[in-house]
Write a structure and sequence with these properties.
The structure is a homodimer.
Chain A: H1 9-27, H2 30-33, H3 36-43, H4 47-54, H5 57-76, H6 86-103, H7 105-116, H8 123-146, H9 155-171, H10 173-180, H11 187-204
Helix pairs in contact in A: 1-3, 1-5, 1-7, 3-4, 6-9, 6-11, 7-9, 9-11
Chain A binds a DNA duplex (18 and 18 nucleotides) through helix 1 and helix 4.
Chain lengths: ~210, ~210
DNA sequence: GTCTATATAGCGATAGAC
DNA sequence: GTCTATCGCTATATAGAC
């Protein structure tokens, strides 16, 4: 948004390559664990170019975080709307979150590592945009409860639990693999995961069967 | 277990102080984010003493991890036994895990950070001891299902979900606080969390009401 | 055993040639 | 705009006095 001007297609290619490489490298080890030299190698560029485009390691990291947070919000939030029956809405939300965790596990891990260390850079997002989204989605849940479509619950906590369960298949993927004794998670494993999470959420919230 | 001999009470005091300080400092930032000088300051000892007792930063980190893993296993695993009714057993297990997350959030975060970066040091534990424990607990779940005390589920995935939900209140505590708009989580917040997780697990698994 | 003072390496960042 | 060579700092680790 500031630093060197935004024009030029070579610039676009380079910054895109750097951001993709940075997401890969930050995904293992977080901010402190990543080396600028690793990111440069991953992007196939000299290290100096990273500083030319992004100035400092922290500014590059912030750029990566920003991309992730944007995707986080777009991903699934429009499933939770009052017109939809809760069974369909919640199941769709869970499936979208699980699909996101599988599609971009690195993004999920970077987000998790940032929150783990106290979210120094994400705090404004958590207290602002995310809080408002949760309040809006919570109102929908309360609407469903009031209409007898599901149990009365603590809506925010239900979302914390959904996020925890879906993200665990990205963030703790190696633990899941190790415990199941797999080299990597099969499609069947992910189907079992989806079935389990969906059942816990729908039956756990007493959602009346979809029609 | 190796390096300097294990006798002497001054040694016991120093190593205990260092391990406690290390757990605090590793809890924010993980292995790479921690500075030996921070740990020394936190323990009130000169930095050189850390190296005298533990040799390297990695060996100190391993010692901290070992303590955490031991506690992890002791914490709650004896709740899941076939004699107990599943409602009581699963509710007790969830409560014990949540209490553990509240009592030692730093330990939970260190474990999470280690798994996040691919669990290079924990892999033997995950594939060995933890896998065996899950297999044993899964057999109990299947026993309950076979006796009509609860639905037929994917037992391992149920445990992944329980761990995810309970640990999120330690590992992602700042996110929970931010979204709820709190300075810190109140006793009421934690009671709501416990109620939500317990409901999702018990109703989600179709556990027949306790008698 | 305990500490101060220092060696050594690796990292982020930059200067300056092309 | 792009790269090579290098600076300066900081962190782990150790040598050696007490």
């Amino acid at each position: 948004m500031d630093s060197p001007p935004e024009t030029g297609t070579a610039r676009r290619d380079s910054t895109a390559a750097i951001l993709a490489a940075a997401e890969t490298v930050f995904a293992r080890g977080g901010f402190e664990g990543a080396r600028m030299s690793e990111i440069a190698a991953e992007a196939g560029l000299p290290k100096a170019n990273l500083h030319y485009y992004f100035g400092t390691k922290e500014r590059l990291y912030r750029a990566v975080l920003e991309r992730i947070v944007t995707a986080w919000l777009d991903a699934a939030s429009d499933w939770i709307v009052p017109e939809r029956p809760p069974a369909e809405a919640l199941a769709g939300y869970v499936r979208a979150k699980l699909a996101d965790a599988q599609a971009r596990p690195g993004a999920s891990r970077i987000f998790a590592a940032e929150v783990l260390r106290g979210a120094p850079l994400l705090m404004p997002f958590l207290q602002g945009e995310l809080r408002r989204r949760v309040q809006a989605m919570s109102a929908v849940i309360e609407h469903w409860s009031a209409h007898g479509l599901m149990d009365t619950v603590h809506p925010a906590h239900v979302f914390f639990c959904i996020w925890a369960m879906t993200q665990t298949y990205a963030d703790f993927g190696v633990q899941v693999q190790a415990v199941l004794g797999r080299d990597r998670l099969s499609a069947q494993d992910m189907a079992d995961a989806a079935a389990t999470v969906t059942a816990l959420v729908l039956k756990g919230c007493g959602v009346r069967a979809a029609m």
